[in-house]
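Retry 2 of 3 after timeout on previous attempt. Resubmitting structure tokens to design endpoint.
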């Protein structure tokens, strides 16, 4: 198969993935494999910038890799690995830091946000995050990065760092382009905030069908529907917004049944749980099979790191030569 170029994407190890992760990133990762050579990285070094839950890090890496593989990543073609297993990335980070003006980093919106959220731990890792992110991408000479609209400024900063490197040392890397991806805003079960593990308003992909049903049962719906006979307003109901992903063909019917009180919220939630369970039936089987072979996941990650390291070593040799290092 002829592929168009190389995609790089990284995600922090947040452990078991949820519906928001799947709809926002994983399903796109899987699709991109048909078009590009893909390099997918679990960015554990980035997770250290906030020093939260480091004792969970190893387990989180393993669970996340399991979900990625069960969702359809094909490790025989795609490079799936852990960021810290390829130490060249820290070397490139140091080298790129020599050409990156401090002002660029201090103005980065993510840095300002992190300082606001973690005033007790404003470390260099937070400030240097965009440099490490740039190193992640260009170490593997990736030319394409899948991003949502809101992540475009981060990628632009990476492109600026690449251009600045080139202005000192000559063309070395592809300037990474954005592959704009529509990232749906998947609301959490509270119906107020985005689905997120830290807010505990999420549905994990790995849950059993019964657990999914119980989780969905807790979802907040239209607050105006106090009684079964009250007509509802699906546009304000989070259960309805999830039906769009898991029962797309039945959305008009559910919309009208809700507005006319033809359906109750309990039935509607059961219908959603059925839709989710059907969508992830194969995933669940594959995941159980992979989970029964823990060495397999470790082997995939080790093989991915080996393949990533081969590309990384060549890049670092080229960069050092251009920068005048012996
Ligand atoms: Fe939401 Fe369904 Fe209840 Fe309407 S019937 S309020 S769409 S859960």
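Retry 2 succeeded. Sequence:
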């Amino acid at each position: 198969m002829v592929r168009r170029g190389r995609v790089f994407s990284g995600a922090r190890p947040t452990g078991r993935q949820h519906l928001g992760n799947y709809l926002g990133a994983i399903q796109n990762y899987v699709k991109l494999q048909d078009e590009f050579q893909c390099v997918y990285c679990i960015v554990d070094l980035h997770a250290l910038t906030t020093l939260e839950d480091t004792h969970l890090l190893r387990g989180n890496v393993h669970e996340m890799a399991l979900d990625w593989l069960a969702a359809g990543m094909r490790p025989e073609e795609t490079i799936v690995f852990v960021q810290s297993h390829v130490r060249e990335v820290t070397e490139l980070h140091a080298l790129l830091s020599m050409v990156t003006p401090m002002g660029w980093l201090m103005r980065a919106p993510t840095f300002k946000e992190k300082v606001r959220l973690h005033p007790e731990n404003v470390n260099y890792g937070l400030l240097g995050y965009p440099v490490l992110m740039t190193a992640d991408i260009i170490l593997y000479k990736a030319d394409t990065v899948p991003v949502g609209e809101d992540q475009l400024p981060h990628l632009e900063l990476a492109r600026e760092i690449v251009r600045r490197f080139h202005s000192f040392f000559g063309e070395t890397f592809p300037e990474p382009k954005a592959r704009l991806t529509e990232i749906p805003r998947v609301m959490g079960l509270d119906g107020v905030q985005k689905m997120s593990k830290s807010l505990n308003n999420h549905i994990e992909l790995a849950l059993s069908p019964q657990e999914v049903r119980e989780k969905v049962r807790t979802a907040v719906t239209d607050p105006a529907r106090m009684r079964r006979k009250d007509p509802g307003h699906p546009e304000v109901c989070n259960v309805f917004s999830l039906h769009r992903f898991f029962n797309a063909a039945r959305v008009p019917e559910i919309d009208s049944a809700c507005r006319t009180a033809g359906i109750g919220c309990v039935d509607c939630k059961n219908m959603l749980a059925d839709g989710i369970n059907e969508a992830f039936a194969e995933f669940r089987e594959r995941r159980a099979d992979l989970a029964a072979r823990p060495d397999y996941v470790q082997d995939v990650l080790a093989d991915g790191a080996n393949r990533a390291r081969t590309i990384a070593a060549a890049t670092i040799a080229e960069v050092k030569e251009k920068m005048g290092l012996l």
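Attempt log closed. The mean pLDDT is 94.
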